[in-house]
Write a structure and sequence with these properties.
Layout lengths: L1 H4 L5 H11 L12 H5 L50 E3 L18 E3 L13 E5 L5 E3 L1 H6 L3 E8 L14 H5 L2 E10 H8 L7 E6 L6 E5 H4 L4 E6 L2 E2 L9 E3 L12 E7 L14 E2 L5 E2 L8 E6 L10 E10 L5 E7 L7 E2 L1 E2 L9 E9 L4 E9 L8 H8 L13 E3 L5 E3 L3
Parallel strand pairs: 3-12
Antiparallel strand pairs: 1-2, 3-4, 5-6, 6-9, 7-8, 7-12, 9-10, 9-11, 13-14, 15-16, 16-20, 17-18, 17-21, 19-20, 21-22, 22-23
The chain binds the ligand Nc1nc2c(c(=O)[nH]1)N[C@H]1C(S)=C(S)[C@@H](COP(=O)(O)O)O[C@H]1N2 and molybdenum atom.
The ligand Nc1nc2c(c(=O)[nH]1)N[C@H]1C(S)=C(S)[C@@H](COP(=O)(O)O)O[C@H]1N2 binds next to β2.
């Protein structure tokens, strides 16, 4: 309660919260002989002393690089079943098991087109050439000599989820190709100033040092705005999966453009029209034209708890919580519906609400035990409102593959089981 009451909330909202929670939490009362009852049949429950209190635990440093408790083994990346495609495939973050807005590095989503290269940073170089006054080649040490900056941003694949059915069962199946971290590196603008851009410079073609040599063209405006060259993630060096030792990071743009294992930046007058911006990462519209260079990830949200394959233990108080984000800036509000979208109520946004980062939302709710459909709808600071799947298809047709930012409803059955309500 103290966390909720730290926020400036209206008296009527406070009354709602208190009545929603009062008597609704599924804890066992300690009145009467309950304590003696609890301890029956096990050595570890009150009033007995649990076994882990009777001898000292493992020594300090018994794990030189810490890992989660053995009881959290299920909180891992969500990997597709088809092992044959693992070289060009993706794994998803276990969104339904995570709290807050930062994705731990070990479960950050992955998308690789040619596997994960094993790069020795001593032997890695970044070449900057093309329409520049002074072509340059950098070692990792050179890159780290620039003034650094740290920023919290989400990264999302534009195929999250694709338009293609089936849509999957859990929050991770659906939109697990999004994660959020604190990124440290250098402003790309600063590095470009070192080389000096020629007046004709309009695009920068970034190339990865992976077996796919993945290549994307970035408009110069973005390169001179908030684009970064990143070498650290959540305080430690990038993981190999995330582009060690160096990647481009383009806040709010589709994940594909944040080229990992970055080896080359070529300044050009035209885009490269590489595979990843023609054959892939464009969308066929209903009239036969193609939407290309769909840079921005539009506002989106998902309820992560309760969500697919979870189960509400009993009627009573439940917090509805999830994440919202927008490539255009900050999330300004998230609304929740608990009646199949007929009416909406505003959720609380957890501080900090950062630009182009995940934002955590919370909504206190009392479940009456009847079947219900719950869903969240994000609005960003530009006023853009997250659409329903039907609204999205009405605008974009059925041939699209990327940029599905539809509202995602969950159905809760009378027995508490949560399933994907979007058939
Ligand atoms: N060199 C290179 N960069 C790449 C890719 C790749 O396969 N090779 N995949 C892209 C795609 S499609 C996405 S969504 C993001 C995924 O970044 P992550 O694996 O760190 O989550 O990286 C992008 N950068
Ligand atoms: Mo992607």
């Amino acid at each position: 309660m103290s966390e909720l009451s730290d926020h400036p909330i209206s008296a009527s909202r406070r009354r709602f919260l208190e009545s929603a929670i009062a008597g609704g939490i599924a804890a066992t009362s300690l009145a009467g002989d309950a304590l003696a009852e609890i301890g029956k049949g096990t050595e570890n429950l009150p009033p007995k002393i649990p076994e882990w209190m009777k001898t000292p635990g493992d020594p300090v440093g018994s794990q030189l690089y810490g890992t989660p408790s053995q009881f959290e083994k299920h909180v891992v990346r969500n990997v597709p079943k088809n092992a044959a495609q693992m070289i060009s495939a993706s794994s998803r973050a276990p969104l339904q098991d995570l709290d807050g807005i930062i994705t731990p590095n070990g479960v950050f989503y992955e998308r690789h087109h040619g596997g994960i290269p094993n790069i020795d940073p001593e032997q890695h170089r970044l070449i900057l050439h093309g329409l520049v006054e002074k072509p340059l080649i950098f070692t990792m040490e050179d890159i780290r000599q620039f003034p650094s900056q740290s920023r919290i941003y989400f990264l999302e694949c534009s195929g999250n989820p694709t338009y293609t059915k089936p849509y999957g069962k859990t929050a991770s199946d659906l939109v697990g190709l999004v994660s959020c971290a604190e990124w440290t590196g250098v402003s790309l603008k600063l590095v470009l100033q070192e080389a000096g851009l020629k007046p004709e410079a309009k695009w920068i073609v970034a190339e990865g040092a992976d077996a796919a040599a993945m290549t994307r063209s970035i408009p110069i405006e973005k390169c001179l705005d908030d684009a970064m060259l990143v070498y650290s993630q959540n305080g430690e060096r990038l993981r190999p999966q995330q582009g060690y030792p160096l990647r481009v990071f383009l806040p709010g743009f589709e994940g594909n453009m944040s080229v990992k294992w970055l080896r080359r930046l070529k300044v050009t007058a035209e885009p490269a029209y590489s595979r990843e911006e023609t054959s892939k990462y464009t969308d066929l519209m209903a009239d036969g034209s193609s939407r290309e260079f769909t840079f921005y990830m539009e506002a989106k949200s998902i309820i992560t708890r309760p969500s697919g394959e979870q189960r509400l233990s009993a009627p009573g108080f439940h917090e509805i919580t999830g994440i919202a984000w927008s490539g255009h800036g900050k999330i300004s509000r998230v609304d929740i519906s608990v009646d199949e979208g007929k009416s909406w109520q505003e959720a609380q946004l957890q501080d900090p609400v950062l630009t182009r980062a995940l934002t955590r939302f919370r909504f206190p709710w009392r479940w009456d035990g009847k079947p219900v459909v719950i869903q969240s709808r994000a609005t960003d600071e530009t006023g853009y409102v997250q659409p329903t799947l039907a609204q999205l298809i009405a605008v974009r047709g059925e041939n699209s593959f990327y940029h599905n930012n539809a509202i995602w409803p969950w159905r809760i059955a009378a027995n508490g089981e949560v399933t994907n309500a979007q058939v």
